[in-house]
Amino acid sequence: MTDKKDLEENLAFTPKYDDEGLIPCITSDTDTGKVLMFAFMNEEAVRKTIETGEAHYWSRSRKELWYKGASSGHTQKVIEMRTDCDQDCIWIKVEAGPACHTGRETCFYRKIELGEASDDAKMHFIDAEKVFDPKDVY
Fold it and tell me: pTM, whole model, 2 decimals?
């Protein structure tokens, strides 16, 4: 699609991948709305997520398709999948166990204090309780 208005109002799913063939994906818990994680998907991950109803991502560090939960057992059943207005970001709502490889429910377990000089920014733990021991899973 070439026309911006057409892209924003059309119902055709035409995700816009970056130069590396990736699209960002925000993952949240369907019950709480809490953001669990952020990852990238490539075309295969998007396709497999749609076809299986379970989250698949692209691991940039391992450079391979990543079926969430393959090693940990913490799979993510996709309840809803959305894209933003210009189709360059995906949001999935999932039923899931813990999402973070550190053993926490969410990867976003530190809060950055605002109102400080950025060089002096401080962080605090929130939602930081570990719900599993990563040594037992990975």
Answer: 0.88
Alpha-carbon distance of 76 to 16, in angstroms, equals: 23
Task: State the Cα–Cα distance between residues 40 and 134, nearest whole angstrom.
Answer: 22
Q: Residue 91 forms beta bridges with which residues? A: 26, 82
- Could you tell me which residues are beta bridge partners of residue 104? 130
Q: Report yes or no on 102 lying in a domain.
A: no
Confidence of residue 2 (pLDDT cuts 50, 70, 90): low
pLDDT tens-digit map of 79-102: 999 999 999 999 999 998 789 999
112 burial (CB, 10 Å; 0-12 / 13-18 / 19+) is exposed
Q: Residue 41 maps to which CATH number?
A: 3.10.20.810
User: Is 69 contained in some domain?
Assistant: yes
Tell me how far apart the alpha carbons of residues 102 and 86 are, in angstroms, rounded to a whole number: 33
